[in-house]
Amino acid sequence: MQLHTTTNLLLLSMAVADFLVGLLQMPLLLLQNQGCWFLGDVMCVVHYFFAALVVSVSVGSMVLISVDRYIAICNPMFYTTRVTLTRVKLCICLCWTFSGVQGSWIYRDVFKQPDMYITCYGSCVVVVGFTEGLVGIIILFLGPILVIAVLYLRVFMVAVSQARAMRSHVAVVTVEHSQTVKAMKSEIKAARTLGIVLVVFLLCSCPYYCFSAAAGTTSLGASYSIIMIWLIYLNSTFNPVIYVFFYPWVRKTIKHIFTLQILQPGSREVSLM
């Protein structure tokens, strides 16, 4: 129950998307990389549609987390009233829904004719047109980067001003002020962690989107595109590693689950922070 917060709910959305990438997409991409796709043309299209869905949800969740951090640091007095569990759940549902609609639009033609780009038995190839690729670059790459960069610039400016204010009043720190400082450090740490996640996202996604922009059309399933898709999937591998490294409560939670302590009576009340 201690972890049932609005921020952690957004993290859960991103974690579910990253988990599905590792559970479903990576094994199928490995199978495809062997040059032997035996699941049929329809499953080939579903495979790429689901890839677009989970990657889009992961990016969308990252944007929502940056908005959450922005409000928490820049408008802390209004955070509890503006960012409620109901609103966060609604945003998550909209994120998943929009991602599904976007994926359906991108692959609308191959949904109607799954074998449109299949040239030989055992291959799984889907071509993303120029318009669809351009929309994908804007929505899944340039747009999120721009939004997060603007929010982080504002967060950085506020964090610097608050740090100066804290140092100027360090001589008259009270217990209440000490708790406020601790809370603010926690918010800034969360923002810094998301910044690292963003840098990893840029490093993993740049090759694919830069190639898509230069080529105009992208043949998903070709050997060169599979390598770049692997990089995008690796981003979903790095995300949980980053959070495990920076947050002790994540490690405690994992230990709590794998040692089956979560099944013990009263486990929901355990302190993990």
Based on secondary structure, the structural category is: mainly alpha
Topology, number of strands:
2
**Taking Cα atoms only, what radius of gyration do you get, to the nearest Å?**
21 Å
Strand content: under 5%
What is the tally of helical segments? 9
The stretches of 5 or more residues where confidence is low (pLDDT under 50) are none
Secondary-structure element order, N to C = HHHHHEHHEHH
Mean pLDDT: 81
Percent helix: over 70%
The major sheet is characterized as: 2 strands, antiparallel
Biggest sheet strand order reads: 1-2
What is the straight-line distance between the termini? 11 Å
Q: Can you tell me the overall shape?
A: globular
What does the model show?
It is a single chain. This protein is an all-alpha fold. It is 76% helix and 2% strand. The protein is built from nine helices and two strands. The chain has a two-stranded antiparallel sheet. Helix 2 (41-74) runs antiparallel to helix 4 (85-106), helix 2 packs antiparallel against helix 7 and helix 7 (175-215) runs antiparallel to helix 8. The longest helix has 41 residues, at 175-215.
